[in-house]
Amino acid sequence: MSPRRSPETPWPTDVELQILQVLWQGGPSTVREVHETLYAGEGAGYTTALKMLQIMHAKGLVERDDSQRAHVYKAGITKQRTQKRYMADMVQRLFNGSASQMVLHALGSHPPASREELKEIRTLLSKIESGD
Amino acid sequence: MSPRRSPETPWPTDVELQILQVLWQGGPSTVREVHETLYAGEGAGYTTALKMLQIMHAKGLVERDDSQRAHVYKAGITKQRTQKRYMADMVQRLFNGSASQMVLHALGSHPPASREELKEIRTLLSKIESGD
DNA sequence: GGCAATATACGAAATCATTCGTTGACGGTG
DNA sequence: CACCGTCAACGAATGATTTCGTATATTGCC
Question: pTM here?
Fold first, then answer.
């Protein structure tokens, strides 16, 4: 009956997050594509990317289509959900659970560049203020 | 000429961050105090806390007064600066450098509880809008 | 069929974070 | 002085992450 309780994917590590970014950005990709995008020329070798994707598959962080010879991997968790998860964790661990404190920090350190962004934030604030 | 380039402290790990929280919260503390606060009854043993503080001292994450038998440790980095650093990193790695996107996420997932917080955010927005 | 290119799979090394056990020093109390 | 509790120091075990080398399978092509 509960709406959608995923089996709780583990936290992506740093490298895993980089790979997820590639998949979020470029969509389902082969190992080669991920490797080219992430380590173009420099960086880790092909088998490293392969191993990482295999590990991530075992963890449920990516899904795999192995119907072709070159398996195709796609993100197993959405960018949205991951962002939310990291945010919640950071709020808890670093801002004593106060999202507002974090927002103030964010706006103070990295003020929004565009007028549209400011407007978006104001709109959301109003929505919250009016009781959602 | 550059204003104040600290020798770039390494990122605190999870456990290290917990310890820093204790020091930020309770001020300079002995190993015993940190241990009691963090692992009261449950959790890691005393020597683990000691070892962690020694490691953190070697990394420059904490400072130490060893003039007494029970050494006194205090945070070597401020909470403010650490918050800012984590934020910047997260914005870069998870929000494509857009702080606004992160703010929207934060406000969407964890709306501010109090009216004061909302007001604070609005005030900061105005300040930003008026060209700082 | 045999070869070259490209793929997956697997195991192992290197590094780091975390935890603990043990040792030796210090300090107060009887 | 001898004892007991507390302390710092150190080394080592464990587990996770990341990297790579090697083995093996598949495909297309001559």
Answer: 0.87
